[in-house]
Amino acid sequence: MLLAAFFRLWNLGYPNKLVFDETYYVKDAWTLWNTGSEKAWPKDANLAFESGQVNGFLTDPSFVVHPPLGKWIMGFGMWLFGPSNAFSWRISVALLSIAAVGLIMMIAKILFQTQVWAVAAGFLFAIDGHAIVLGRTGLLDGILMFFVLLAFYFLLRHLQTRKLGEPTWAQPWLLAAGVTLGAATAVKWSGLYFLAAFGLYVATSDAIERRQRAESQLVEGQRLKLRDWLIPSGLQAMISFTLMVPTALATYVASWAGWLMTTNGYDRNSRENALLSLWQYHLDAYGFHINLHTPHSYASSPLTWLFAIRPTSFFYEGLAEGEGGCVSSSGCSSAITALGNPLIWLPAAAAVLLLTYLFITRKSKVGGLILLGIVGGYLPWLAFLNRTVFQFYAIAFLPWMILALVYVIRMFLHTRSQEQLPRAIRIAGGYFGLAFAVSLFFLPIWIGTWTPYWYWHLHMWLPSWI
């Protein structure tokens, strides 16, 4: 976590400019914090905002298409540290990104039952460039990732503690999962995919385990009666649904409190009461999302996300030799590119594919749990191949890619003979060391360090990375 903190907090205020979609979320966060809803800004307001003139927003409401919780969280950092510096725009996201490293270690400890593999998962997540860049930028996706990862931790705790006796309402971890999944959805609507994936898993896994338990209690020659497991499973599924879904909905609606309690938000007075107006707002936002087909130079198909074919450039500035202290004959560059460490990202993508095969052929429970994050975070995007989407959305399921990679490395070691094991351990240790070295090599293009242009270009291994 200290390593993660260093990578995410070092020179966090650079650049003191709104990079990529910070132009929307940072300014929206500040108006939301001050007025209870997002407000419009004058044309070309960024330069004034970046120079410290942060209260130049208008009284007109602004039409925004993402729920408010992520912006409330960013707004808190801006209020706490002062809105006129880029550090404050990003600190809330950075702290949640660091906390996520702790979370993935807690999750890996539950899944793999050893501290060694927990630390391995945390280490890879701490040094991956995609996680570092999204942890240093005032966007919503890193906040979404934190909440869905926290919900997954609560889900695992629920699976550890649930009892298969009579249906019960005493499921505090499931209730906590419902709250955090509601919070995730209140950051971006894609949190709903995780709510569906986790909720269906709870219901089906409960039914399967109840059936297996009922079968194990049969005397030889007896037949399992449906009512012995199906009725309790159905009742428990309804209880679990009630604990998760209405709780998530209540959390989601609560995030709109500022909009509901004021009267000058977008669409606030479009219908005869506040809740109907909120529904109208959602219809308008949904219409925007499904019709978003605007070309963008860094848009990427979800089919390519696992392999990092088109990473998103968040920021780039160049200087010619002699400008601004640049002494390189090739010129100088400052870049922030949401590109994962290739030595982590590509093996993790291969691990996801291998884990899918192993789950289908061997029905690994741990493998299935890891794939659950891929199902909730990645598969739904395959239905939006024609929509304008970006590679950096993958931060929402990156923790499960890391877990899949650790699972495969662990399996590699556990399947070696005693004679092969020392060499296998050296190979695994060499991999972790090499991954760290590659992260150090790529670090300048993750945090915007000024380098000679040729050094930046040395990192562009594929033409599509430029």
TrEMBL record:
Keywords: Glycosyltransferase, Membrane, Transferase, Transmembrane, Transmembrane helix. GO terms for biological process: protein O-linked glycosylation. One of its GO terms (molecular function) is mannosyltransferase activity. It is a multi-pass membrane protein. Residues 2-204 form the ArnT-like N-terminal domain. The chain crosses the membrane at residues 87-108, 115-133, 139-156, 192-208, 229-254, 343-360, 367-384, 390-409, 430-456. InterPro entries: ArnT-like_N (IPR003342), PMT-like (IPR027005), PMT_4TMC (IPR032421). One of its GO terms (cellular component) is membrane. Its main location: membrane. It is found in: Endomembrane system. Residues 277-465 form the Protein O-mannosyl-transferase C-terminal four TM domain. Pfam families: PMT, PMT_4TMC. Pathway: Protein modification; protein glycosylation. Belongs to the glycosyltransferase 39 family. This is Unannotated protein.
